[in-house]
Design a protein that fits this description.
The structure holds two protein chains of two kinds. Chain A is about 45% helix and about 5% strand. By secondary structure, chain A is mainly alpha-helical. In chain A, helix 1 crosses helix 2. The N and C termini of chain A lie far apart (about 50 Å). About 10% of the residues of chain A have low confidence. The termini of chain B are far apart. Chains A and B meet through helix 1, strand 1, helix 2, strand 2 and helix 3 of A and helix 1, strand 1, helix 2, strand 2 and helix 3 of B.
């Protein structure tokens, strides 16, 4: 006899949102500006907020953080554009940015 | 002394302002690229807002990274900590993980090339030294 499905009500795995800027595109975004965020700037940005003076950051981690921050900015920008396009706006203004902000912050 | 504390506070403030300005410039460059690519302009306020946002997000990142490293009983933040930061989005995590491997690979290659160069350099200077010794003995 077939046992009835005893699994709990299906929680369809909440679709983790894709990052717009990373979706395959003819020109992967922000790839040209890889050098814009210098390791030094990233290092200074992080050190301002460290509680412990002894905390250090490895070179590789700095490079990776530079990538992460770049993605953060590009993602904010691209989502802003998508919102503006959806609203038929002529440019991306703070109103559009406000709408994409909550999900952006949840994704990071 | 209160004056000293105030002066220090002022210094900290102007340092942060300079950092914010640097972030603002970077954000401007990146948004310019996006604008060109998508054919949609950004208002000045939007760029300022994104730049403020990025600066604040750095605070969260920095504190988290410090905590992660401390949790692992380390004082130096490494790439594993950064990967942990990117855990909330699958595509982000994958991208960061791939980038991490790329960076490690590039740095290893660079080290290997440097090592080879210095070894060759030592080899050459040793040869020269030996040649010099032979000559002087004659």
């Amino acid at each position: 006899m077939d046992s009835p499905c005893t699994r709990p009500p299906c929680f369809r795995k909440a679709e983790r949102p894709q990052l717009c800027s990373l979706l395959p595109a003819p020109h992967p975004l922000g790839m040209a500006a890889t050098g814009v965020l210098s390791k030094e700037l990233v290092s200074r940005l992080l050190h301002v907020h460290f509680k412990d003076d002894k905390t250090k950051v490895s070179g590789d981690a700095l490079q990776l953080m530079a990538e992460l921050l770049k993605i953060f900015v590009v993602e904010a920008a691209v989502r802003g554009v998508r919102q503006a396009q959806a609203e038929d706006a002529i440019l991306v203004d703070v109103d559009q940015l406000e709408k994409v902000l909550p999900q952006l912050l949840l994704d990071f | 002394m209160e004056e000293e504390a105030e002066a220090e506070e002022q210094q900290r403030f102007s340092y942060q302002q300079r950092l914010k300005a640097a972030v603002h410039y970077t954000v401007g460059c990146l948004c310019e690229e996006v604008a060109l690519d998508k054919g949609m302009q950004f208002s000045r306020q939007t760029i300022a807002a994104i730049s403020e946002l990025t600066f604040r997000q750095c605070e969260n990142f920095a504190k988290d990274l410090e905590m992660f490293a401390r949790h692992a009983r380390r004082t130096t933040i490494n790439t594993e900590d950064v990967k942990l930061l990117a855990r909330r989005s699958d595509s982000l995590l994958k991208y960061i993980t791939d980038k991490s491997e790329e960076i490690t690979h590039i740095n290893l290659e660079r080290k290997a090339r440097k090592k080879k160069k210095s070894e060759d350099g030592n080899h050459n200077s040793r040869e020269l030294a030996e040649a010099g010794v032979v000559e002087s003995e004659q």
